[in-house]
């Protein structure tokens, strides 16, 4: 069940976010009609994937880093972002890979490194909350006209509120990840209780990963035009 949910949700987020980007940038206006968009979308997606492999350079990645990370994590605080991004990326990659492709699940040296990265994730997540939670508080003002026109269901909600919601979803999922990991390592639960704990850990990890992907698309990745 988890494998199917993971694959379908990741594919859904990928095609959903790319299609919304395509539709938001569709010109002329008549091309925004759904039948026309569905015909043009595969070609746009193929061109975008090719451009990503052809034009993605360390210079552009560094420019994106300076534009988004440096203002939010100035000076030595960048190490907090590094620790959070690296630990989350490693845990997500190893966790999803073993959960989907290895029937036995994670074991041995990968599990050891996963646990170590999980500890770093817990500490860095707490540091990120101390530094950035105020920027995502519910009463923070949004820029005028900052509506998320790329999401028709939530188009009346500002993009900033969507980004803030994703931040707190990631926070809640991260808390569940830390708690379930700690409980699984303590000698207080029998084997029967460990199984639902593992499933909870997996789904929390998937929720965190999906939140990060959409957050990256809405708040970090620039839009053309």
How many domains in all? 2
Find the count of extended strands (DSSP E, 2+ residues).
0
Global outline: globular
**CATH structural class of the largest domain:** Mainly Alpha
Q: Note poorly predicted spans.
A: none
CA radius of gyration is 20 Å
Spatial separation of the terminal alpha carbons: 41 Å
Average per-residue pLDDT, rounded, comes to 84
Could you say what the CATH architecture of the largest domain is? Up-down Bundle
Helix fraction bin: over 70%
Number of contiguous helices: 7
- Under CATH, the homologous superfamily of the largest domain reads Transmembrane di-heme cytochromes, Chain C
Task: Record the SSE blueprint.
Blueprint: H1 2-24, H2 34-55, H3 58-72, H4 78-101, H5 108-132, H6 159-185, H7 191-220
Helix pairs in contact: 1-2, 1-7, 4-5, 4-7, 5-6, 6-7
Write up what this structure looks like.
The protein is mainly alpha-helical. The chain has two domains: 1-56, no CATH class; 58-220, Transmembrane di-heme cytochromes, Chain C (Fumarate Reductase Cytochrome B subunit), CATH 1.20.950.20. It has seven helices and no strands. The longest helix is centred in the C-terminal third of the chain and has 30 residues, at 191-220. The chain starts with a helix and ends in a 5-residue tail after the last helix. The model has no long low-confidence stretch (mean pLDDT 84).
């Amino acid at each position: 069940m988890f494998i199917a949910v993971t694959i379908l949700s990741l594919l859904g987020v990928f095609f959903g976010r790319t299609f919304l980007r395509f539709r938001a940038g569709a010109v002329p206006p008549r091309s925004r009609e759904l039948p026309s968009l569905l015909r043009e979308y595969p070609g746009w997606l193929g061109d975008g994937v090719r451009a990503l492999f052809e034009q993605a350079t360390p210079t552009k990645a560094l420019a994106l880093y300076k534009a988004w990370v440096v203002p939010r994590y100035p000076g030595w605080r960048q190490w907090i972002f590094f620790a959070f991004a690296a630990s989350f990326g490693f845990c997500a990659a190893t966790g999803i890979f073993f959960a989907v492709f290895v029937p036995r699940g994670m074991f041995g040296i990968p599990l050891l490194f996963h646990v170590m990265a999980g500890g770093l994730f817990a500490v860095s997540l707490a540091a990120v909350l101390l530094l950035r939670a105020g920027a995502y508080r519910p009463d923070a003002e949004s820029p005028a006209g900052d509506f998320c026109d790329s999401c028709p269901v939530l188009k009346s909600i500002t993009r900033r509120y969507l980004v803030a919601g994703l931040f707190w979803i990631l926070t809640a999922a991260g808390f569940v990840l830390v708690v379930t990991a700690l409980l699984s390592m303590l000698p207080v639960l029998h084997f029967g209780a460990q199984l639902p704990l593992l499933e909870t850990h997996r789904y929390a990890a998937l929720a965190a990963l999906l939140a990060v992907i959409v957050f990256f698309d809405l708040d970090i990745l620039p839009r053309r035009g």
